[in-house]
Design goal:
The complex is a heterodimer of chains A (240) and B (745). With 240 residues, chain A is α/β, with parallel strands linked by helices. Chain A has 5 helices and 11 strands; from the N terminus they run βαββαβαββββαβββα. The longest helix of chain A has 15 residues. In chain A, 57% of the residues are buried. Classes of the chains: A alpha/beta (240), B alpha+beta (745).
């Protein structure tokens, strides 16, 4: 499997994602520059953490206009696996690939801390190796990770089993303790915590491996990414 | 500009003395233009020239078999083996952080990061030593709270966005920093031996290239500002403080490292203090060449900037580099890829002069050596160090030792600093094996089997009572932190924060501190590879405590870090180095004296450096042999605070300790005698054996115990408390202090 890690100017967890995929998971990983118009032959894409374009406006608000995001959107529409971590999650919601918004933490300060994350669904390419209800321990590191959306959207996410993770001890004021969500077709996931930082016992834990290894196993099995919501097209990864 | 006449008032406004101006006249052989006067004033400022400290800094050891680059470059470089080297340095941003805490601290981080990557190293760790006035002071508490929040916010903003982990540091509160906070930032980077770059303008005819942010009017005379005491007017100096853009710096980092890989760069230096002036003349001076630039090519943020303003601007995130002639296109292409301004502004000349033109007209022409190397050097008179405290203190008789411990744990210096360090991304780049709150920070070097341990320490109280002994104690403690995690200390950097050197009793503090530093660094084999001197830290005539801050780095094999917390119940607790034998005078610099008695007197604790070194050898051997389960050194708050801190692990395992001593209980529990380390172990015999081999005393003082701290002297119970109670106070104290209601300014 080959995973592409998008590098925006200001991405700073790009190398960490690349390292986790290539060294901790033993898969091929390559960087994709922000002005690329194509993703090449990658099988999945990670939008990494950082401060894309400085994030001096709303986080991710400029990144959504970068050329690579057109390619990412097309890739996602065709069922491609797209994982947005931290700033990557912010970019996904700004781009409309995921609903809702991420705003300033309720405590107004940046938080770097290890937190508990309850797995809410195993029906996704990112959680298929986890056990529902299991608490993973992952770090968060963000200033704007408070997930908000209209009640209607939140209800829908929950009804369609599209909340991937809940915080066990909400660090940022996110509505309904939501820490990560899936797209309607379940092939796109955004999450604020950093799985790539928890793939090595030396770093204090390996729970992040469960998420990244789920991705690898979903791809290897060629498992159709089933949709819990009615009416969505099948989204088997067919693009080569 | 040349129409302005140089009057004594103009000279004084540039903080140059009459004799310094005479020297300028003789070096030039004519009157300077105003631009030239400005250039001299920043290069000869205390901040850039070290004119008051230089002759004493020469006393410091700067060499060892590990040192690849000592002082004089942008940062020191140490060989750590496997073809890998590290660059590291500390720098202060005290004055800007008082005037504008957020941007002052942010640009302090930015400046030191540039010093590291300008050498070709990728920054992988930052630490900060920050000092403020008391948060609960009725007069100044509100302001101190605001400064702390601003400084922490600024460090967080810059470091997090840039993508470097802030892995450790210290935060201290003391009345003397009321109008003069200290913000000292340490940064460390890693590279291969063949990736090292220097700030040299070599190769006659080579193009000089300006890259990064456009030049604006911000920060003009920042270097001179940092070389003066604060007065009421200082608050008017806000425009002198620069504004940081960490995103730009991140781009600059990636672009510089990528451009260096082309092989077309021959020299590079960041524009820090004194901006374009400092980078041009220093690069020329180091190479023995001249540098000629035309300011019309310099990217400018606003219209109508004069040569004076362009040369003295301290706009952030700018670099100057020299490329190989004919290959400049390769360099410019990389910067264009990253969307950065990169323009050829001049070329390297043979004549040794800094020649600044504006649209072809020469506006300054001064020898590079005159600016960079011939600044006046002062052997300022010094007497005896300023003494602020009596020799003898009050009679000590505590009614409630457990209550005293609780007050200590909830005090600003000793409490949990989580509120600060959770605002820093301490994990980015996934190398942090031990981060903030640990004994020493440990960062792995991914490409190797090696890790770097680092520690940052200062102690103004010790140094106020005896700058020489106090400084030695700081070096000892820093090395002890490293040894306690199994690392071998290899090199040091220093940030000397002192008052006005023109006062002989302050100058004496500086001299004694440097001499103490030299002696200790020689003994611990940790040469000083660079650093920073920050003088004139006075407000309205009141100096800060002499505050040298020392950063020491060490190496160790990559592996799970040695825990400072007790790991299992029922383990023997052994105190390496013994209970100590302090007298009451040596208790006057302790946290107990500060927090419980609100006083300072006497002398710092007594240090036997040979013994200290043997204790450190012992613990390193034990840690590397896996013979101890946890290790924590004794420092602020002494034995009892160390035992308590060791109990604040995830399992909350405490200690049941019985001592046997004739010391007064307050001293026994809280004295800060050095050379002592607490270990818990399942292999006590191995500990005794290692201790004996190194002629170090090691005494068993008790055993680990679930959830409780009990300390007795013989049969008398001195401390008795559930760990949960102690932890709660310690953990909540800083937020409590930050919300303490004090009158608004």
């Amino acid at each position: 499997m080959k995973v592409g890690v998008v590098v925006f100017p200001g991405s700073n967890c790009d190398h960490d994602a690349w390292y986790a995929v290539s060294h901790n998971l033993g898969q091929a990983a390559e960087f994709i520059w922000h002005d690329a118009s194509s993703l090449g032959d990658v099988d999945a894409v990670i939008l990494p953490g950082g401060f894309s374009y400085g994030d001096y406006l709303r986080c991710g608000a400029i990144a959504k206009f970068s050329p690579v995001m057109n390619a990412v959107k097309t890739f996602a529409r065709e069922g491609g696996l797209v994982l947005g971590i931290c700033n990557g999650f912010q970019i996904l919601v700004e781009s409309g690939l995921l609903p809702g918004a991420l705003v300033r933490n309720s405590g107004m300060e940046f938080i770097c801390r290890n937190i508990g994350l309850r797995v809410a669904t195993t029906n996704s390419p990112y959680t298929n190796l986890a056990r529902k209800g299991r608490v993973l321990h992952l770090p968060v590191a963000h200033g704007e990770g408070c997930y908000i959306a209209e009640d209607r959207v939140l209800d829908e996410l929950q009804a369609e089993d599209r909340v991937a993770f809940y915080y066990t001890d909400n660090p940022n004021g996110s509505m309904r303790d939501i820490a990560g969500i899936l797209s309607a077709d379940r092939n796109v996931m955004g999450m604020m915590p950093h799985p790539e930082r928890a793939c090595d016992t030396l770093m204090g834990g390996t729970d992040g491996n469960i998420i990244l290894a789920s991705l690898v196993s979903a791809f290897a099995a060629g498992i159709p990414v089933s949709s819990a919501s009615a009416g969505s097209a099948s989204s088997i990864r067919t693009q080569s | 500009m040349s129409t302005i006449t140089i009057t004594p008032e103009v000279i004084a406004a540039h903080q140059l003395t009459a004799s310094e101006y005479e020297k300028i006249l003789s070096l030039l052989g004519r009157e300077p233009s105003l631009t030239e006067l400005g250039i001299f004033s920043v290069m000869w400022s205390e901040h850039c020239s070290y004119k008051s400290s230089r002759i004493h800094l020469k006393k410091l050891p700067t060499e060892s078999k590990h040192v690849l680059q000592g002082p004089g470059e942008n940062a020191g470089i140490i060989d750590i083996g496997d073809g890998v080297a590290i660059a590291f340095k500390i720098e202060s941003h005290n004055h800007p952080s008082f005037i504008e805490p957020f941007q002052g601290a942010a640009t302090g981080v930015g400046g030191i990061l540039r010093d590291i990557f300008t050498m070709g190293a990728r920054p992988i760790a930052v630490m900060d030593a920050i000092r403020f006035g008391r948060l609960d002071d009725p007069q100044t508490g509100a302001r101190n709270q605001r400064i702390l929040k601003g400084v922490v916010g600024g460090i967080s903003h810059y470091g997090n966005c840039f993508g470097v982990p802030t892995v450790g540091g210290e935060c201290v509160f003391e009345e003397c920093y009321d109008g003069n906070p200290l913000v000292n930032v340490f940064a460390l980077g890693v590279f291969k031996h063949d990736e090292i770059f220097y700030g040299k303008a070599t190769g006659i005819g080579n193009p000089v290239i300006y890259v990064g942010s456009k030049t604006g009017r911000d920060g003009i005379h920042g270097a001179s500002m940092a070389s003066a005491e604060f007065t009421e007017e200082s608050k008017q100096k806000r425009p002198n403080v620069q504004v940081g853009d960490p995103f730009m710096e991140k781009l600059l980092l990636e672009a510089c490292l990528e451009a260096m890989k082309t092989g077309a760069i021959v020299g590079i230096q960041d524009m820090g203090a004194a901006g374009l002036t400092c980078s041009t003349c220093e690069m020329g001076s180091r190479a023995g060449t001249g540098v000629e630039i035309d300011l019309m090519y310099v990217p400018q943020r606003e219209l109508g900037m004069t040569p004076y303003e362009i040369m003295l601007s301290e706009s952030q995130e700018r670099m100057l580099l020299v490329a190989e002639r004919g290959r400049e296109g390769e360099v410019l292409r990389v910067f264009r890829k990253w969307g950065l301004d990169a323009v050829i502004v001049g070329e390297v000349k043979a004549d040794g002069m800094l020649r600044v033109k504006n649209h072809g007209e020469v506006v300054a022409e001064i020898s590079n050596r005159a600016l960079a190397d011939e600044a006046p050097v002062y052997n300022r008179p010094y007497t005896k160090p300023l003494r602020v405290a009596p020799l003898d203190g009050p009679a000590i008789h505590s009614k409630d030792l457990t209550g005293d411990l609780k007050r200590l744990l909830a005090s600003g210096d000793l409490c949990n600093k989580r509120w600060i360090w959770e605002q820093y991304d301490y994990q980015v780049r996934t190398n942090t094996l031990a981060g903030p709150g640990a004994e020493a920070a440990i960062v792995r070097i991914k490409e190797t089997d090696l890790s770097i341990a680092m520690s940052l320490d200062g102690n103004g109280r010790y140094c106020a009572l005896d700058p020489r002994e106090g400084t030695k104690l700081i070096v000892a403690e820093c090395c002890r932190n490293l040894s306690t995690v199994g690392a071998l200390p290899v090199a040091a950097t220093n940030n000397l924060n002192f008052g006005n050197p023109e006062r002989p009793e302050i100058m004496a503090q500086l001299v004694e501190s440097i001499e103490g530093l030299a002696e200790a660094c020689r003994l611990f084999e940790t040469p000083i590879t660079g650093g920073n001197v920050s003088l004139y830290n006075e407000t309205l005539g009141t100096p800060i405590f002499p505050t040298p801050v020392i950063g020491i780095v060490g190496t160790l094999p990559t592996g799970p870090p040695m825990p400072m917390h007790f790991v299992s119940e029922g383990r023997k607790i052994i105190l390496l180095g013994g209970l100590g034998s302090p007298d009451e005078r040596q208790f006057g610099s302790s946290q107990y004296a500060k927090v419980i008695l609100d006083q300072i007197w006497g002398t710092p604790p007594k240090l036997d450096m040979d013994f200290e070194k043997r204790v450190q050898t012992t613990i390193r051997e034990l840690v590397r042999a896996g013979a101890v389960e946890s290790a924590h050194d004794l420092s602020d708050g002494g034995l009892t605070v160390a035992l308590t801190e060791a109990s604040f692990g995830p399992k909350g395992i405490g200690a049941d300790v019985t001592l046997d001593s004739d010391l007064a209980p307050e001293l026994l529990l809280f004295h800060e005698g050095p050379s002592r380390i607490l270990v818990s172990t399942a292999q006590p015999e191995a500990v005794y054996e290692a201790a004996k081999k190194n002629s170090v005393n090691a005494i068993e003082i008790g055993a680990t115990l679930r959830a409780r701290m009990v300390i007795r002297n013989r049969t008398e119970t001195l401390i008795n408390s559930p760990i949960g109670d102690l932890y709660g106070l310690w953990n909540a104290a800083l937020e409590h202090l930050l919300h303490s209601t004090v009158p608004v300014e």
